[in-house]
């Protein structure tokens, strides 16, 4: 799962088949040629962090 790419159809398929989905990688990919830390600027994650009293990376 990825906050920015939630794959709704895949989630529904897995739920219907009893398949558990989970994240396999940390958020962001600082230093990787294919990624960045842009996800840390997500308004959704910022709202969750504020609500739970945590930082975005937590």
TrEMBL record:
<dbReference type="InterPro" id="IPR036812">
    <property type="entry name" value="NAD(P)_OxRdtase_dom_sf"/>
</dbReference>
<dbReference type="InterPro" id="IPR020471">
    <property type="entry name" value="AKR"/>
</dbReference>
<dbReference type="GO" id="GO:0016491">
    <property type="term" value="F:oxidoreductase activity"/>
</dbReference>
<protein>
    <submittedName>
        <fullName>Methylecgonone reductase-like</fullName>
    </submittedName>
</protein>
């Amino acid at each position: 799962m990825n906050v920015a790419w939630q794959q709704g159809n895949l989630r529904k398929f897995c739920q219907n088949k009893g398949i558990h989905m989970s994240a396999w990688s940390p958020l962001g990919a600082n230093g990787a040629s294919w990624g960045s830390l842009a996800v840390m600027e997500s308004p959704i994650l910022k709202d969750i962090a504020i609500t739970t009293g945590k930082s975005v990376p937590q």
